[in-house]
């Protein structure tokens, strides 16, 4: 099923940030979200992932299909790398964590407590989690933060394999991942200043 966003408006802290956002991500494809700092990428992704409601508009194809990776890795510090993946696999009704361990070169670290990993290693584990969800739509907010060049390549390979299996990816990033993907610049959809100040005024009433 295609992920379809239609005429979406989103707000942060009660202030409209984006308005009229429309795009689609078809099976087997990725869409790269672009836009300067503060443009609203995180806010948009959080709405699509169901973490906050939109102001208006439609999101279709997102029910029970999305695996979201935001700025926080969401690891269980007192579980090992392997136990973290087994935990998430169980949550999503999956069993096989081996491909995720291999894809992110986590086998040598599998018995380490997640809390003892470096920032980049934690990020690798956070991204490996996507693979054990079995979910087709990966919604990723700055996934390569803390990753070295080799790990970025592992990530790009994991996304490419996911797409080849009919998956989808919506990725906010400032770097070039080398993926064969379309880009979508959200800058033209920034809410008008008048909308922003109107909302702020309301907050004072
Ligand atoms: N809790 C908050 N309350 C009010 N405004 C907020 C809050 N969090 C973020 N904002 C504002 O909302 C706007 C959109 O922020 P958002 O994090 O979605 O942008 P972004 O495009 O992801 O930025 P970046 O590239 O820096 O990560 C920004 O102007 C930001 O300052």
Automatic annotation (TrEMBL):
It holds the Pfam family ABC_tran. Signal peptide: none annotated. GO terms for molecular function: ATP binding; ATP hydrolysis activity; transmembrane transporter activity. InterPro entries: AAA+_ATPase, ABC_transporter-like_ATP-bd, ABC_transporter-like_CS, ABC_transptr_haem_export_CcmA, P-loop_NTPase. Transmembrane segments: none annotated. Residues 3-205 form the ABC transporter domain. This is ABC transporter domain-containing protein. One of its GO terms (biological process) is cytochrome complex assembly. Keywords: ATP-binding, Cytochrome c-type biogenesis, Membrane, Nucleotide-binding, Translocase, Transport.
